[in-house]
Every structure is written in C-alpha cells, then in structure tokens.
Amino acid sequence: MSRDSCWRALRQSAHSLQDTHLSELLADESRFDTLSFEHDGVLLDLSRQRFTPDVLQQLVELAQASGLRDGIDALIGGARVNHTEQRAALHTALRTPADGHVLVDGEDVIPEVQATLDKMETLIATLHSGQWRGFSGEAIDTVVNIGVGGSDLGPLMACHALEEFQPDAARSIELHFVSSMDGSQLSGLLSRLNPATTLFVLSSKSFTTIDTLANAATACQWLVDASGLEREIILRHHFIGITAQPDKASEWGIPTQNQLLFWEWTGGRYSLWSAIGFPIAVQIGMAGFRQLLAGAHSMDRHFQQAEFDRNLPVLLALTGIWNINLLDIHANAILPYDGRLAHLPAYLEQLEMESNGKSVRLDGNRVDTRTCPVLWGEIGPNAQHAFYQLLHQGTEAVMCDFIVPIRRYTDQSPHLQEQHRLALANCLAQARVLALGDHALDPQQAAAAPPWKRYRGNQPSSMILLDELTPYSLGQLIALYEHKVYTQAVIWQINPFDQWGVELGKKMATEMLGALEQNACDHDFDCATRGLLERIAARGDRT
Ligand code: F6P
Q1: Does ligand 1 lie within 6 Å of residue 268's CB atom?
Q2: Tens digit of pLDDT for each residue in 83-125?
Q3: Boundaries of every domain in the chain
Q4: Are 413 and 473 in contact (CB under 8 A)?
Q5: Rg (CA), the chain
Q6: Ligand 1: does its nearest atom lie under 6 Å from the Cβ of 206?
C-alpha cells in the first residue's frame, strides 16, 4: 500500500472513531492483552489509547510504507542519515559490545569507542581511588560538570536517577552540574566549594558554546585566584575536557591527557552514551555505566529485529502519530511516578523537540502534516497538585506518558515500600480517571454531580512499566524514546539530527552582546530591541 492510501485509511478510521469514548473501548475485556507489549522487562501498555487493534495495524502499514525498515538499517548501519550536516547518527554504536563492528566511511568505529571507554575507566579509577590530586596535593573530592543541552541534561538526568547505585568507591566524590550562562548556578557553588579539591569537567561537543565557555572561564579564574598559580598548572590539575573538537579544547588549554573525545557522528542530545556520560560513571562507576549501555543495546537490537507490530519504540512512535496527526492532539505530558526520574521530562523535551521540532522535509519542501507536539512534564505526584486540573477538566486534549517501576525499596523500610505503593496507586488511578472520566464512577452518582464536578475523561495515555529502575532499565527507557523519535522522523520525512533553528539566535546574541558592551544601538535593530537597549543603557548609567 502507498503512503497516501495508508494516510487515507487512517483518516477514515479516525473519522469513524471520533465519537467513541475510551470507556467504550475499554469495555472490551481482551483489550489489555491485545494492546500491551513487553520486551526484556519493559512493558508498554497502549490499551488507554483512543484506537483499536485494527488502527494499530493500519499504523504499522504506514510505517512499512514509509520505509522504516530501511530507515532503521540506515541509522544503525552508519549511513549519513543527518543529510544537512552529511553525518551518520551513530549513538547505537556507542553501546555496541566490543566484539561488534560498525563501519563509518569504511572504517570500524567500535575499537575507538572501546578505547575511549577504557580511558574513561582509567580516569574514573584515578578519581575514585583518591589518586587525582588538586594543586595543593589534596585528593579531588568534588566534580562539577559544566555543559549545556545534551552536554548537561543526559548526565544530570541519569545521575539523579541512579544515585543509589553508587559503589562505595564513588561515595567520596560530590557531583554538581552547572549549565546556565548567567552564572547563577556557578556563583552559588563557588562560594561553597574548596578550590583545592574541585575538578571541573568541561563538556561540549563543539567546544564553542558560549554558555559553557563563560562558566568555564569563571571557574578557571576562581582557581587561579585561590591558588595563586599559573593557568596552565590549574588546567592540568583541575580540568577535564570532553569534546568532539580536540583542537579547540587544546587551544583553550586542556592538556591532551585530560581530554576525552567523541565523534561528530554523535548528536549532542544523543551523547550521554559517549564520554559525555563521564559524570554518570563518576557517580555509578564504570560497571554501572556499562550496564546503562547494555540496557540501551538491548533496546537497539529489539528496534532493529522485532516486527513492527510488537516493536516497542515503533509502537510508541505510531501512537504519537495517531494522536498528533489523526486526533489533532498537540500536547504530550511526561509523567514519571518516581522522584528519581525528576529530570526525565527536561531530558525528553530536548530529545523530542530539538529533534523533531521541524517543518521542512528531507526533500526541502514544507511538511503537510504536524510534527513534534509540545512536550512537557513533571514528577507525576507533584504534577497532580499543579497541572492535572487542566488534564482532567481543561479544554485541551493531552496525551500522557506514565512511567513507573513496579518494584522499589525492596530491601528498605516497610514505610518506604508503602510510599512506593502509594505512588503506584496514584499513577494507576490517574491514568484510569483520565481515560474514563465520569465512567469510573457510579452512573447515578455521576449524573447527580454539578457541572464543575464532572469529568469528561477520554484523555489518551501510555503506561510504561519497568520492573525496577536500574542502570540497565534506564538505558532501555532512554533508547526507547530515542528510537520513537527516529521512527516519527522517518514517517514525517524530516531530519531529527540537526538543529538549525537554534543557530540564528546564537549568532544574534553575539551581535547583541556587542551592542550592550558598547552601549551602542545598531539602527538596523527593530524598534522593540532599540527601545529596550536604550532603557537598559539609561538605567545602567544610574547604577
Ligand atoms: O544549542 C543547541 C545545542 O547545539 C544542542 O544541540 C547541544 O546539545 C547544546 O547546544 C550544547 O552543545 P555543545 O555540546 O557543543 O556545547
């Protein structure tokens, strides 16, 4: 079947299902068994989506007609799927086991991937054993990651999620993250940290990101001032550089032995599996980091090998396509019911919106369908006391992703175990009420309720159940979303691996900085910019 006829068939299905409430669909007792799918301890339940198994089959046909099978082979095989930058996007190679082979331009990249992991391992061992010494000879006990976007969000999210997997050797190291260019995170930290025992990890694929370089310059000066030593000595003892641009890192002053490298074919928002994951290995050790890679690899193999009608990333992506393109839903809430996943929504915001927030197709023409929706989220239990009101009684249709581990605190106090049950109960209850609305109540009671106590329900949701949250299952979860994003990009025929949209703003900010520094207003600026610059200049003079 052609893509056009697949879309046509789907539009007809959407039309015929438009008045069907989820409560009617859920009356089918076999629905959970038919619409929930499992791979290696990850369960994806789609029974609360507003479709039928037949529609899911039509969506699978759309994926087939869109050339997804070839698309997956191209991605994992190292083809230049990022056509605007003429690059492969080989995050999957970063988690390929040592005996695997992935060719880029005829060269196997796995040996250098493994060599970098080995170098990371050596640095981590030096740190954990107290052998990395600062300028005064004291052992480093604090690591500060300086990076932004993909060079921050992935490691931050994973370190927060996996804190309890810290091996004893890692307990002596305190870890911090600094990203924002305004220096507010850094200034607070520097007033508390001991310069003699602090190591900065400068994480930047391009090594040109002004946010990161500004924070790094402030940190370096702080160390120079505190030690009274030359910059060069400080850089040798207190800075590691992680980058795909070693020349630029060297130019900035990071000695080669303190550099950990990755490759242009690793996208920034797909880079936590590379040396950018160094802070994760500081936190959970290399064995834990390798578990994270193994979990992601398990999802990669599943993505590559499983039939689409039981392929978790493909099914998650197709569900999104149905909601966005056929049901006209433009918002996706990410709702983890586990505080350890607090940074997952921010991580997925970048992964999904920077990847698929596009409106130009691979052939250069404008898309004729909607692409990435607005994605946001919060730890579910907290969101219940914030924006769930809108989900339950607002005017917006929102698709929700609930994410929760089945087991937690198994070897801890019964009180904590009870708290986890409470979180699970809330997660299941919210998903149920969002789907069923008043239909979850006794019909007489529902009918007697005043309008402001009515619940329309019919909000679609997916439930992702992990057996437990571990480095392995977190790796699976992140890879699940990465491949979801790629699948949708193939269907929308867009490039998920570039981000030209953010480039113009960066360029303009440089011009604006010049104008602010010189108190000079370029007359080419628009009137709003001129007005604000003049106001800032006038107020600035008064201080
Ligand atoms: O501004 C967007 C971006 O390029 C992201 O894609 C990237 O993750 C982030 O900036 C940081 O880039 P870098 O690692 O090169 O400093």
Answers
A1: yes
A2: 999 999 999 999 999 999 999 988 999 999 999 999 999 999 9
A3: 3-17+24-67+293-492, 110-262, 502-540
A4: no
A5: 25
A6: yes
Shortest-distance Cα residue to atom 6 of ligand 1: 268
Atom 13 of ligand 1 has which residue's CA nearest to it?
204
Counting from 1 in the atom list of ligand 1, the atom nearest the Cα of 153 is 8
Mean pLDDT of 267-288: 98
Looking at the annotation, which residues are catalytic?
354, 385, 506
Do you know the residue count of the chain? 543
CATH top class, domain 3-17+24-67+293-492: alpha beta
Residue 273 contacts residue 92 (beta carbons within 8 Å): no
For residues 444 and 518, give the distance between their C-alpha atoms in angstroms, rounded to a whole number: 71
The rounded distance, in Å, linking the Cα atoms of 537 and 515 is 10
Cβ–ligand 1 contact at 151 (below 6 Å)? yes
Backbone angles phi, psi at 74, to 5 degrees: -65, -45
CA atoms in the 13 A half-sphere facing the CB of 516: 11
Encode pLDDT of 366-418 as tens digits: 999 999 999 999 999 999 999 999 999 999 999 999 999 999 999 999 999 99
Q: Is the CB of 149 under 6 A from ligand 1?
A: yes
**Is ligand 1 within 6 A of the CB of residue 267?**
no
Selection from 124, 161, 105 nearest residue 342 by Cα: 161
Q: How far is the CA of 359 from the centre of ligand 1 (A)?
A: 20
Angle made by CA atoms 120, 497, 494, in degrees to the nearest 5: 160
Neighbouring C-beta atoms of residue 191, cutoff 10 Å? 8
CB atoms within 10 A of CB 7: 19
Q: Which two tokens stand for residue 13?
A: 């299905």
Verify whether ligand 1 is closer than 6 Å to residue 34 (CB atom). Answer: no
Pick the residue whose CA is nearest to atom 1 on ligand 1.
502
> What is the Å distance from ligand 1's center to 453 Cα?
46
Instruction: For residues 375 and 301, give the distance between their C-alpha atoms in angstroms, rounded to a whole number.
Output: 27
**C-alpha pair distances (Å), 160 with each of 37, 45, 368, 447:** 28, 26, 40, 45
Residue entry with tokens 């927060």: 160
Q: What CATH fold (topology level) applies to the domain 110-262?
A: Rossmann fold (3.40.50)
Beta carbons of 313 and 192 less than 8 angstroms apart: no
Pocket test of ligand 1: the residue of 85, 91, 151 to mutate, having most ligand atoms within 8 Å of its CB, is 151
Residue type, 45: D
This model's pTM is above 0.90: yes
Q: How far is the CA of 499 from the centre of ligand 1 (A)?
A: 9
Could you give the 3-state DSSP secondary structure of residue 337? coil
CA 506 to ligand 1: nearest atom? 1
Q: Decide whether any atom of ligand 1 lies within 6 Å of the 323 Cβ.
A: no
Distance CA 317, CA 181 (A): 34
Alpha helices in 361-470 (DSSP H): 380-384, 388-393, 414-436, 443-448
